[in-house]
Amino acid sequence: MIDLWRARWQEGRVGFHLSQPHPALERYWPSLAVPDRAKVLVPLCGKTLDMRWLAQAGHPVLGIEVAPEAIEQFLAEATTPVSRYQQAGFNISRQGSIELWCGDFFHLHIQQAAEVGAFYDRAALIALPEATRQRYAFHLAQLVPPGAKGLLVSLTHEGGESGPPYSVANQEVETLLSPNFRLTLLEESEPDDRGLCEKIWRLVRRGPLN
Ligand SMILES: C[S@@+](CC[C@H](N)C(=O)[O-])C[C@H]1O[C@@H](n2cnc3c(N)ncnc32)[C@H](O)[C@@H]1O
User: How far is the CA of 48 from the centre of ligand 1 (A)?
Assistant: First the structure.
């Protein structure tokens, strides 16, 4: 699967990339009341401008992305100097308060995410085939502390099992995530002309008592 993503980036087949921050981020992030300086984990981040939006909102950002092409394109869009280093198999680039870790999200260890206080998933869960989504939900839960809040943007479409993006029914989102997160469905868009319907979820990592 990782080879497929590398090929997509190399060939420029990145229709999922938005030329501006996702409207749901601007609309709902403030209502989460995430503490001002909390570091935000952005799994499967691509080169999303959502990371710049989060940084401008005062959050250090930790983006995880397997395709170096995505990371280089993201970094090239700003003039801020970049520092680079390596850690545990990840090539890390830091630009201002944004840290991009190039490697497999599933190889990120809890110690490496120690400072994370919030998270943002747009098109990460739905980028993964069914067999991997359970693993993703579990790994995300391992990486964020009890009480951490986040937004998740999922979608459904009428293309059956085809993907990515995969059509992930609301029931599946709840089944995957509710063991470790409290979920609230904030918004569901009307289906577009391809039957594609986006859902915005608020998540709070459960603690031992809730
Ligand atoms: C659908 S795109 C979404 C990107 C971004 N979140 C956005 O909103 O534009 C999914 C991204 O996940 C990356 N990816 C896929 N599997 C990955 C993995 N196991 N670890 C890290 N990144 C991965 C792909 O290269 C791709 O950039």
Answer: 10
Distance CA 157, CA 192 (A): 9
What pLDDT, on a 0 to 100 scale, did the predictor assign at position 1?
A: 80
Is the beta carbon of 100 within 6 A of some atom in ligand 1?
Answer: no
Cite the annotated binding site for S-adenosyl-L-methionine by residue number: 9, 44, 65, 122
User: Cis omega (within 30 of 0) on the bond before 81?
Assistant: no
Task: With beta carbons less than 8 A apart as the criterion, state whether 121 and 182 touch.
Answer: no
Evaluate whether ipTM surpasses 0.95.
yes
User: CATH assignment of 2-9+22-205?
Assistant: 3.40.50.150
64 close to ligand 1 (CB < 6 Angstrom): yes
Q: How many CA atoms lie within 13 A of 45 on its CB side?
A: 34
Do residues 180 and 196 make contact, with C-beta atoms less than 8 angstroms apart? no
